[in-house]
Structures
1.
Amino acid sequence: MNAMAIGHAELYIYPEKVTPHDRISSPQRIDVVGTQELLEVLVSMPAETSFSVLLVINDCVVGNGKYFMTHETVTILHEYGACVGFLVKPLTLLREARQEHQRRYTSQDHVQQ
């Protein structure tokens, strides 16, 4: 984490169903300081994962949220303070990345047949 950053997001990840190829296979905490880092963590989560987010600015928690991710969507279970709407943009980017991956995967299947 950048020592000069005044804020970060702490993600507490609790995978519920994992497969051998999942990069995150056990409960853990991951700190991120930017949208790109956050998106990379979301992409690496197993399909069925509960996770919490604490937003921290100057060592003070300014928001928290609890979520559940599936293949299709992320359900917002709770959001408070600065976490209200915090994941909207990253989740939109994640959905677009998944749709693009699915289109490419489907196109490759058609080409191989």
2.
Amino acid sequence: MNWKSWMLPGAIFIASGCKIQYPTEKIEYKVESQDVAEGKRLTMLVCGSCHYNFETKDFSGKRLEDSPKFIGKIYSANITQDPERGAGKYTPGELAYLIRTGVSRTGRLMPYMHRPNMADQDLDDIIAYLKSDDAAVKPSVRSAGKTKYTPAGRLGLSMMKPGEYRNHSIQKPKEDKVMLGKYLVDNLACYHCHSKSFASLDPLDPSRSKGYLGGGNKLRDASGKKIKSPNLTPHITGILNWTDAEFRRAITEGISKDNSVISYPMPLFPELTEDESSAIFAYLQTVPPIKRKR
């Protein structure tokens, strides 16, 4: 038997043993801040790029077209209040646990929902919004589709580990512009796509992710064409010559420095205030520059 004849069965055997289910911890979580309007803004910023469906105008999920094909077909979850198809059965504690650790109420690992460094007030406002009567989170039985991982995708997912639930207070650095920018880069997950690879991200300390913000991560555009994420570091191959205004236009309107349209899967963040986009830009000027091919 040559190596080709056992490679696929071997991969399937390995993948079948990959762990993507974890025990959950039941926690008591009291929502202190309940600013629903701010919660909606934050939910669009933090969750919208994956979970908001612009056709149905709600958080019922969609297919993530930019996912590399070797991973499989990936669909984001319905996070409306439907108790069966959505997140209606989640308690505030289960929502907090999911967002802080990446583990759902059923124990399933959802690593890209992992926001271990989110401030308490932002977390509270998001939970308050998800439990509100806003039309975008009202119960929807719609399912975007069933995620089907390939053996390679399942293996890759199993290599990502859930975070530890840290039961201490986290405050948003509102007074320090650069640190606010760092906070936003973390919680908007800019570093997910704009670092070297999804496989080498460090959610607890994003700056330790391989190729942090230097781009090069392999994605797909709307037509399925392979592309690499741009460099966001202060290098000539990145945003060294950009202005604050050019950066804001890019991330809120989708127009690049050279007036070209920024392609999918880059989401737009029109909900960002000028102070917030300026803080992100200020922080990006402080990260180590990385040289990338244009």
3.
Amino acid sequence: MKQTVKPIAVISGDVVGSTKLTSDEFEQLLQRVKDIQAWITKGNHSNLHSIERGDEFQTVVHDINNALRYAILYRVGIKALGKAFESRISFAIASNADLRASVSESMGEAFVLSGRGLKALKNDRFIFHSEHLELTERFALLFKYLDKQLTELTSRQCAVLIPMLRNHEVLSVSDLADKLGIATATASKSLKASGWPLISELNSLFINQVTRLEDV
């Protein structure tokens, strides 16, 4: 067991309507969750993950300034698989945790807040909590709008967002088009339709606020 007093983020999620997926669709889902977790590990090798029954997952994030980006990556990464795929995501930031090799056996306020938030989700699909009430309240309405935007995305629009989220937003539109094998004009149009400019701006605001927690 490793104790940490520094703030960590915990992302908890599950798949909506997973029992309706075919065997092949379930395999697609499982592979995509594993891919997303591998991408997140590349961001910080200390980040840890779990998958329960294939349709529930959790990630411990040490680079908390990237927590929102990772949470969105889960949401759009799964949604990009097609109309049959959707997920619910709850993430939280808090300090003081007891971390074990098994994520499911780890403890701390971030785990409690993240798990509680996931259980409380009904019509919404995306929620955030923090041990700092002012941080939770600051982003509550913004994340409601983000949730609405992500829910309305098509699988194609989600697919366009994935490279931007994976590459820390440093991809140019032309590079994005090359990665996706589409015309630059099409990539640009799809990014705008997905709401990427506002998503990117929101992520920057989140990073700015969370960085202050690391400096405390």
4.
Amino acid sequence: MQTARQWGLIPKGRLEPGAENAITDVPGVAVGHRSLRGEGVFTGVTAVVPHPGDLFRVKPRAAVEVINGFGKSAGLMQVAELGTIETPILLTNTFAVSACTEALIRRAIAANPAIGRKTSTVNPLVFECNDGAINDIQALAVTPADAGAALDAARTGPVEQGAVGAGSGMTAFGFKAGIGTASRTLRIARRDFTLGTLVLANFGAVGDLVLPDGRRPEPRAPASPERGSVIVVMATDLPLGDRQLQRVARRGGAGLARLGAFWGNGSGDVVLCFTTADPVEHAPSSPVTMQQRLSDDHIDLAFRAAAETTQEAVLNALCAAPATPGRNGRLYPALADWLKENSVP
């Protein structure tokens, strides 16, 4: 597997990637996959775990930006209202949202038996894209046990990309796509911070993809309307306020636009941005808590990182995914094969 950077697609920028060029470069963040393969089944679950502790008791602050809301994700409304997340984040196919929701609820209750009885209920956070072009989505193949397996597999360090986990059956711009990730380091006032992004790429019309060098790869495939989706999960250790988190999330749209996306009528394009800095206690010891906040004079670095990592993460998803046949006999080619055939001297 070669990444977009190894293919020479990512020009040297003002911000450098982290050690793994992945969302897991943010300290404490882990990613796990569960891939399902079978007769007509090509799907899975990907888990993003913001920190290794009890997320219900220590809630990372977060914001959601819905670029185009053609989607069936769970938990977004409460995140938008309260500005926190209290479970791991699961990515999967559209018809597997309920199975993943159940898994998150059961895990939260197991760790906190008071949930729903002596304290508040829990807000499971699940995102989805429709992988029905390759996977038989009506098979309802994903179970709560599969979601649990993705959570159990979550690790820090390198992240497997391409047609893996939730990305198994996803396509983008007529090519095979899936899971991709990237990161940037930010130096502010002699301190180093990180912003990392993971995407579930399943969007973009055939012929619309624009590479950073200006080339427009077009697979040998019939044109089709833009009816896909993309989920963008951003993590950072920057101390950002609620308003700032949403502003950073919004810049994920800039990264998608650089690729040629226009967020069609039938596209579900959602960004979640969370910070590991200054989490919110479920049972605070004081009625007043203090939180640090980055000065807006420095937030352009985070904006740039959000756009760059989103763009590169999608390209990594495309570069890592092999050619895969669809359910209707159509072949979704690999961008890597196109790059080999159209290499720049």
